[in-house]
Write a structure and sequence with these properties.
Layout (H helix, E strand, L loop, with lengths): L1 H24 L12 E5 L7 H12 L8 H9 L4 E9 L3 E8 L2 E5 L3 E4 L4 E3 L11 E3 L5 H15 L6 E6 L5 E5 L4 E5 L3 H15 L6 E8 L2 E6 L12 H4 L7 E7 L20
Parallel strand pairs: 1-3, 4-7, 7-8, 10-11
Antiparallel strand pairs: 2-3, 4-5, 5-6, 8-9, 9-10, 11-12, 12-13
Helix pairs in contact: 2-3, 4-5
């Protein structure tokens, strides 16, 4: 009796395995018999439209409810520029369900990418004129460090009413940043946060609308230098590091700030500020 039961159980198991294969081969579960007729989309949509999703999904659902490859559908959706991740499932008898999470842009990264709030880099989609974002940059492996210093810098300069417009780390690990009033700051590689803290404490005393500080060099052990320009001087975020590295030789150094007891060199009147090393 036990042998008979085991044989029956084995036959039932084999039937359950073989039946779907036979059904597909015979067209029992083909598109005509069990088509996917509905697309149900959920998500907080700002940049991705249901129409876009429908166009992406359509080529994959023609195989019907049983034969549709959900992973292929998900991969296709996640290739859309603004999609961070997607989840695809099906519900009997004819519904394909798609859940989409969009990238939440945090900053621009380099020339052709963006940085999401989750710290992921993704290609720059179209239609970004309405987005006012800081410009960040650096080696891809240093994304976390760049974000951290951007947040620290923003907090340090918040009391002045100025925002950090751009911040970059170069290949040597040297930092530069710009504020929303056009002030460009060369920080260097060492003691980055300490240098910024010292400068942020002094900056309110240096602000003068008639003679604004346009550049500052913090790469000194015992102080920093600033360069003032005319009130009409303005810099956009697009003036990248090649300009932000302070290449102008026509500006005059009007302030040298000293910290500590060590003597601080009094620089002469006119010079290319980029001539001083780290």
């Amino acid at each position: 009796m036990n042998t008979v039961l085991r044989i029956l159980a084995w036959l039932l198991a084999m039937t359950l395995v073989v039946l779907p294969v036979v059904a597909v081969l015979n067209g029992w579960v083909g598109t005509e018999r069990w088509p996917l007729a509905k697309l149900r989309v959920t998500g907080d949509f700002k940049r991705v439209s249901p129409e876009q999703l429908r166009a992406v999904v359509l080529p994959y659902v023609r195989s019907g409810f049983f034969a549709v490859q959900l992973q292929q559908v998900q991969d296709a959706i996640e290739r859309l520029p603004w999609v961070e991740r997607a989840q695809v499932s099906k519900r009997w008898p004819d519904v394909l369900e798609v859940m989409v999470i969009e990238h939440q842009p945090f900053a621009r990264w380099g020339a052709d990418r963006m940085l999401s709030e989750q710290g992921r880099l993704f290609p720059v989609p179209g239609g970004l004129k309405d987005l006012k974002l800081p410009q960040l940059g650096g080696p891809d492996s240093k994304v976390t460090e760049v974000i951290a210093l951007y947040k620290v810098s923003g907090a340090l300069f918040a009391s002045t009413g100025l925002d950090v417009s751009w911040l970059e780390m170069d290949a040597r690990g040297s930092w530069s940043l710009g504020l929303s009033n056009g002030l460009q700051i060369l920080v260097g590689r060492d003691d980055t946060r300490e240098r910024l803290q010292r400068f942020a404490r002094v900056l309110p005393q240096l602000l003068d609308p008639q003679h604004p500080v346009v550049r500052a060099d913090l790469r000194y052990t015992n102080g920093f230098t600033v360069v003032r320009g005319p009130a009409s001087v303005a810099f956009s975020v697009e003036s990248r590091l090649s300009e932000a590295m302070f290449a102008s030789a026509s500006q005059r150094v009007t302030s040298c700030v000293q910290f500590g007891r060590q003597p601080f060199i009094a620089f002469q009147s006119v010079f290319p500020i980029c001539s001083f090393g780290t």
